[in-house]
Structure formats: C-alpha cells, structure tokens
C-alpha cells in the first residue's frame, strides 16, 4: 500500500510537469550564443620629423695684406675677404705708401706720407678751426686696441678718425683712411668695411 501511494504521487508530479510544459505554464529561458569577437591590430604610423637640412654657407678665406711703415707711421696688416681686391699705387719707397681695397663701387684707401691732418667733430661738439664735421659715426676697435670711428660725411662717403685723449683726428696710426661708397649704401657691405677696418694691426 505504501509503495502504491508513492507511485501514484510520482505519477501525478510527472504528469503535472508534462502538462505544465506543453501548456506553456513554465517560464521560457533562452540562452544567447556569444558572438565571436574579432580583434584586429591597428598599426599607427608615427611621423618622423626629419631635421631641415640647411645649406652650409661657404666661408670666404680672408687675405692678409701688409703695408705702411712710412715716416713715423706704423707698418700694419689688414685682412680682406677673398671677394675684395686690392692694389698698392702711388707708393714711393720711404716717402709714401697707398693701399686701395675695392669691391665694386666701394673702396677703402689707406695713405701714408708727409701730409697734415685736421680734427673730427661730431654732433654736439663745438666748432673748431681746421676740423671737419661729421653727421654720425660707427665706433671701431682695431686689433692693436686703437679707438677708431668710421665717420659719415654729409656729402657722402666716410673718413676714419682716431681718438687722441678727448679729441679726434683724421690722421690715424695707419695714416689717412677714407672710404668711398655710393649714395644709399648697401649696409651689408658697410658692415664688411667695418670688419676690414677692425682687422688693422700694427706690426
């Protein structure tokens, strides 16, 4: 009798479960199949900044010239760029010496001889006899430590004056130095002239 009841209960439970399944009484459980994930490696190109290549300027080898040594004036050396030319003219042994350095319309003339000079006056200086007045100047120190001024003439061109204590004169230790330049000069060439004059050295 006990086994009979167990069989009947089991049959009722199974039958109820089957009925509930086909009647749709049980909740539907669905499983989603996971999608395959594709991982692709992405290569990012990193730009390489190459340094800009600038042409190397060609250096002009300077030419050393030796001249002067007339009377009480110093013998000297001076360096000029290789694209400038020079000549010695009007020179008389023991009496005069003249060096002319040129590039196109620009020239530097250094003369030594038995001649006198005058003073150099600048804006703000009082008038003085036997002196020449200049509108402006560029200060230059040569290789021997002399203080020079490339002095601008109101009429154009330049004269080099040297400091003597508190005054300035147009006869330097190297003689009389004048510079010829066209009106409205090329300041690059004027800068080269300054460099040439700064290379002056007593020997």
Mean pLDDT rating: 81
Number of helices: 2
Class based on secondary structure composition and strand pairing: alpha+beta
Into which percent range does the helicity of residues fall? 10-25%
Shape: elongated
The CA-CA distance between the termini, in Å, is 145 Å
Q: Can you count the beta strands?
A: 13
Task: From the alpha carbons, calculate the radius of gyration and give it in angstroms.
Answer: 49 Å
| Element-level helix/strand string | HEEEEEEEEEEEEHE
Profile the largest sheet.
8 strands, antiparallel
Low-confidence stretches: 41-58
- The amount of beta strand, in percent, is 25-35%
Any overview of this molecule?
The protein is an alpha+beta fold and 203 residues long. It has helices spanning 2-23, 187-198; strands at 63-68, 75-80, 85-88, 97-103, 106-112, 119-121, 131-133, 136-141, 147-152, 158-164, 167-169, 176-180, 201-202. The strands form three sheets. Strands 3, 4, 5, 8, 9, 10, 11 and 12 form an eight-stranded antiparallel beta sheet that branches. A three-stranded antiparallel beta sheet has the order 1-2-13. Strands 6-7 form a two-stranded parallel ribbon. It is elongated and about 155 Å long. The protein starts with a helix and ends with a strand. 21% of the residues are buried.
């Amino acid at each position: 009798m006990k086994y009979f009841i167990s069989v009947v209960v089991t049959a009722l439970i199974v039958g109820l479960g089957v009925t509930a399944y086909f009647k749709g009484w049980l909740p539907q459980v669905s499983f989603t199949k996971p999608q395959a994930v594709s991982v692709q490696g992405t290569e990012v190109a990193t730009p390489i900044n190459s340094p800009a290549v600038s042409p190397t300027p060609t250096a002009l080898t300077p030419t050393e010239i030796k001249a002067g040594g007339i009377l009480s004036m110093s013998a000297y050396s001076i360096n000029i760029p290789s694209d400038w030319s020079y000549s010695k003219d009007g020179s008389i042994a023991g009496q005069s010496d003249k060096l002319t350095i040129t590039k196109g319309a620009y020239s530097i003339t250094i003369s030594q001889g038995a001649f006198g000079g005058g003073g150099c006056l600048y804006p703000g200086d009082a008038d003085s006899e036997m002196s020449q007045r200049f509108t402006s100047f560029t200060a230059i120190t040569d290789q021997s430590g002399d203080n020079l001024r490339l002095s601008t003439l109101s009429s154009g061109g330049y004269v080099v004056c040297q400091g003597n204590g508190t005054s300035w004169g147009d006869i330097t230790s190297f003689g009389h130095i004048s510079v010829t330049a066209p009106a409205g000069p090329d300041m690059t060439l004027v800068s080269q002239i300054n460099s040439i004059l700064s290379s002056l050295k007593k020997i």
